[in-house]
Write a structure and sequence with these properties.
The chain is of the alpha/beta class and 318 residues long. It is 43% helix and 13% strand. It is built from 12 helices and 10 strands. Helix 4 packs across helix 5. The protein is globular and about 50 Å long. The mean pLDDT is 93.
Length: 318
C-alpha cells in the first residue's frame, strides 16, 4: 500500500481508502460480510476509513466503530462529516457552531473513539457564515477532538474563501476536499478545483472514483440483477449510457496489456495526480477490497494516460 500526505499536512493516508456510504449501516450488506470487508481493508494496508453522520442516520458510524475498535487507534485514520439533517429539528443540520459542536459528540460516541482524524463539512451552508464554521472547526482541533478539517463538494471559490478566512484570522485551515472525481466526471476537478487546492496544500480525497461501478466493466453486456445498477435505478440512470459503455469497453485492452483490472486502471488514473491524497472506494465483498487496494501499486506511464484520455475525453458524462 502507498501512503500519501493529506495535502501539506504531516499525516499520511492510504492511497486507497474505504468509505461507509451505502454499504454499511443501511442493511444492504450482511453484518458478517461488512466485518469481513473492513477487516480485509485493514489487512491490505488501508488505514483511512470515511464515514458521515447521515449515512444510515448514524448507523454506519455505529457499525464501523464496532469493527474498527479492535485495532490500535493510532493505526487508523477515521473521518466523518457534518451538515445533513439528523432530525426534524431546525438546528439539527447545517454548519452552525451549535450543530457542529453537538454533532461531533454524537459521532465520536457512535464511532467509539475520542477523536476524529478528519472532520468534513459535508456540503457548504449558505445560512452560516464561513467564519463561524471555521472557528468551530478550529476550536475542535484545539480541544483535540479533531486533528484536521476539510470540505466536501465545495466549489473552488468556496474552498478558496474558507482558506483565506482561516489565514486572515489565524485559524487552522482546511487540509482536504472531497469531490466527485472519476474518468467520467473530471472537467470541474481538473480545470477549476485542482488549481485552487494544489496551491493551498489541500489534498483531494475523491468519492466515486469508479463511477459507482460503471468503470469496472461489469456492465459491458447489460445490467446484472444483483448489481448496484440492477437495484438502484437512480445510479443506473446517471451512468448507464451507450457512450459510457463503449468507453469502458475500449479501456479493457489497456488494462489487459498492463495486467490489471479496469477497476485498478480507473483508480490508478485518479491517483496519477499528486494533488490527490486518496481515493475513497466502496465494497460489498472482500474480493473487491483486495482488487481496489492493489491499484495503489499501479503506476501508469505517460503513454497509458494519453491512451486513456483519448478514449474518455474531457466532457463529464455523469
Amino acid at each position: 500500500m502507498e501512503y500519501r500526505r493529506l495535502g501539506n499536512a504531516g499525516m499520511k493516508v492510504s492511497a486507497v481508502s474505504l468509505g461507509g456510504w451505502i454499504n454499511y449501516g443501511e442493511g444492504k450488506v450482511a453484518e458478517n460480510t461488512a466485518r469481513e470487508v473492513v477487516e480485509t481493508a485493514y489487512e491490505c494496508g488501508i488505514n483511512f476509513f470515511d464515514l458521515a453522520d447521515v449515512y444510515g442516520q448514524g448507523e454506519a458510524e455505529k457499525q464501523m466503530g464496532a469493527i474498527l475498535e479492535q485495532y490500535p487507534r493510532h493505526t487508523l485514520v477515521i473521518s466523518s462529516k457534518v451538515f445533513g439533517p439528523m432530525s426534524d429539528d431546525v438546528n439539527d443540520r447545517g454548519l452552525s457552531r451549535k450543530h457542529i459542536m453537538e454533532s461531533i459528540e454524537k459521532s465520536l460516541e457512535r464511532l467509539r473513539t475520542d477523536y476524529l482524524d478528519i472532520y468534513f463539512c459535508h456540503r457548504p451552508d449558505e445560512d452560516t457564515p464561513v467564519l463561524e464554521t471555521a472557528r468551530a472547526m478550529d476550536e475542535l482541533i484545539s480541544q483535540g477532538k479533531v486533528h484536521y478539517w476539510g470540505t466536501s463538494e465545495w466549489s473552488p471559490a468556496q474552498v478558496a474563501e474558507a482558506h483565506a478566512i482561516c489565514e486572515q484570522h489565524g485559524l487552522n485551515p482546511p487540509k482536504t476536499e472531497q469531490p466527485q472525481y472519476s474518468m467520467l466526471h473530471r472537467r470541474r476537478v481538473e480545470e477549476t478545483l485542482l488549481p485552487v487546492t494544489r496551491s493551498r496544500g489541500i489534498g483531494l480525497v475523491p468519492w466515486s472514483p469508479l463511477a459507482m461501478g460503471m468503470l469496472t466493466g461489469k456492465y459491458d453486456d447489460g445490467v446484472p440483477e444483483d448489481s448496484r445498477f440492477g437495484k438502484e435505478d437512480w445510479a443506473k440512470d446517471r451512468y448507464m449510457t451507450e457512450e459510457n459503455v463503449e468507453k469502458v469497453r475500449q479501456l479493457k485492452p489497456i488494462a489487459d496489456d498492463l495486467g490489471i483490472t479496469r477497476a485498478q486502471l480507473a483508480l490508478a488514473w485518479v491517483l496519477r495526480d499528486e494533488g490527490v491524497s486518496s481515493v475513497i472506494t466502496g465494497a460489498t465483498k472482500p474480493s473487491q477490497v483486495e482488487d481496489n487496494a492493489a491499484a495503489a501499486d499501479v503506476e501508469l506511464s505517460d503513454e497509458a494516460v494519453e491512451q486513456i484520455n483519448n478514449i474518455i475525453g474531457m466532457d463529464d458524462i455523469a
